[in-house]
Design brief:
Layout lengths: L3 E4 L9 H14 L9 H5 L4 H12 L5 H18 L7 H10 L4 E4 L4 H10 L9 E2 L12 H10 L6 E5 L2 H9 L3 E5 L8 H7 L2 E3 L3 H11 L1
Parallel strand pairs: 1-2, 1-4, 2-3, 4-5, 5-6
Helix pairs in contact: 1-4, 3-4, 4-6, 8-9
């Protein structure tokens, strides 16, 4: 029986993954890397913003502090989070359904907390969440299950009673390994992993709309 839901943010609740890829390329080009590797965003997507910034400094011999890189990347994406990035289709309706069933939910994300708060406030979902957990509280990100277990503690439920919705393979693997019920959510940015995600997750959906029926079936 599903007693709570943990949502990823980027690529799951909001349509933002392309922004991060474009930002990585833009940042590197403006700092002398004229031909950034095409897979650079894939290399850093499992990292926190601080870890990714240090990776850029080390790999491309940038003469910046990590704090500067973090700040500049935040500047490049802040306007998108504050003004442009939309919710994914059916996100609001899914939250309405959960509310109607008195099923609590929250967000666990590797996105920098200020950015997550900005887009969630603008899209009108911040105050609906029971929690927002980020790498500020869990610096190891989602490579380890601590952030999911922290969410379970807040939800006052066992992992097998909680649905975790994610669009990335490594997050599905981590949550699944910790005993959570998992649903893979299709996102264009992770399309190359979609087959493996579908194999690994307990459920796989092309749209958030399909999660409602999954929860209904899990409750039954």
């Amino acid at each position: 029986m599903i007693k709570g839901v943990v949502f990823d943010l980027d690529g799951t609740l909001i349509d933002s993954m392309k922004i991060w890829s474009r930002t990585d390329i833009k940042f590197l080009r403006e700092n002398g890397v004229s031909d950034p590797p095409a897979d650079i965003s894939d290399k850093v997507k499992k990292m926190s913003l601080e870890e990714a910034s240090q990776y850029f400094i080390d790999r491309f011999s940038l003469s910046f502090t990590r704090e500067y890189v973090v700040k500049r990347i935040e500047e490049l994406v802040r306007i998108e989070y504050e003004k442009n990035i939309p919710l994914k289709p059916y996100a609001a309706e899914l939250l309405d359904f959960l509310d109607s069933r008195n099923i609590p939910y929250g967000v666990a994300t590797a996105t920098y907390k200020k950015l997550a708060e900005a887009v969630m406030h603008r899209c009108g979902i911040y105050r609906r969440m029971k929690f927002l957990l980020t790498d500020r509280e869990y610096p190891m990100g989602k490579v380890f299950p601590d952030i999911f277990l922290g969410a379970a503690k807040i939800l006052e439920a066992r992992p097998e009673e909680i649905l975790v919705a994610e669009d990335s393979l490594h997050c599905i693997e981590t949550a699944s390994g910790a005993g959570f019920v998992t649903v893979g959510v299709y996102d264009e940015a992770s399309a190359a992993e979609s087959e493996k995600i579908a194999e690994t997750a307990d459920h796989y959906v092309d749209s958030l709309k399909e999660i409602e029926s999954i929860i209904r079936n899990e409750i039954i």
